[in-house]
Specification:
Layout: E1 6-8, H1 13-21, E2 26-28, H2 34-44, E3 47-50, H3 53-61, E4 66-68, H4 74-85, E5 105-108, H5 119-124, E6 128-131, E7 137-138, H6 143-163
Parallel strand pairs: 1-2, 1-3, 3-4
Antiparallel strand pairs: 5-6, 6-7
Helix pairs in contact: 4-6
This protein binds zinc ion.
Length: 172
């Protein structure tokens, strides 16, 4: 099964960054009309993620696959989406997309990033990735633990949700 692609409304920017880290193509548009979001989701075959019940309903009437995101914390939102779409998250830099711009990353040699990262970082790490869109360089720095912790939290929530009686979702 190919990975679902997402389109997120203006309230879900943080969630978009998490989905990208977990390797999903997650576009995030701010300051666009509901109509533009619906059109883009249809045109690009993206699942709409929104916190706006009116937008959610309108999108579904137009045949868009839409999911109303209700969770408060990012981990809750991620668990909701995974449960509904039956997907798993993993963090693998080969699959990750740039949290900043959604473009895929590619592994680069240490030599290629010389001068592009702080000297201490250059010395301390062996593996680097570069965004094919905006050129930002990534490595498994201090944020890495935070990512793994969030992933664990999401998996815990998901286990609980999957064993609890279904609440039923208003989604396609
Ligand atoms: Zn980028």
């Amino acid at each position: 099964m190919s990975r679902p692609k997402f389109l997120l409304d203006g309230m879900l920017g943080k969630l978009a960054r998490w989905l990208r880290i977990f390797g999903f193509d997650a576009e995030y548009r701010r300051a666009v009309s509901d109509e533009e979001l619906i059109e883009a989701a249809l045109r690009e075959g993206r699942i709409l993620l929104t916190r706006d019940i009116d937008l959610h309903r309108r999108a579904r009437r137009r045949g868009v696959r839409s999911l109303l995101v209700e969770g408060r914390a990012e981990a809750e939102k991620l668990a909701e989406i995974a449960e509904h779409l039956n997907i798993e998250y993993e963090v693998n830099p080969r699959e990750s997309r740039c949290p900043r711009c959604d473009a895929p990353l590619r592994p680069v040699s240490k030599e290629e990033v010389r001068g592009k990262v702080p000297p201490g970082t250059y010395k301390a790490y062996e593996d680097f990735w570069i965004c094919q869109g905006c050129g930002k360089v990534y490595w498994r720095g201090s944020h890495w633990r935070n990512i793994e912790e969030t992933l664990e939290e999401v998996r815990d929530l998901l286990r609980k949700r999957r064993t609890a009686p279904s609440k039923g979702y208003e989604a396609s």
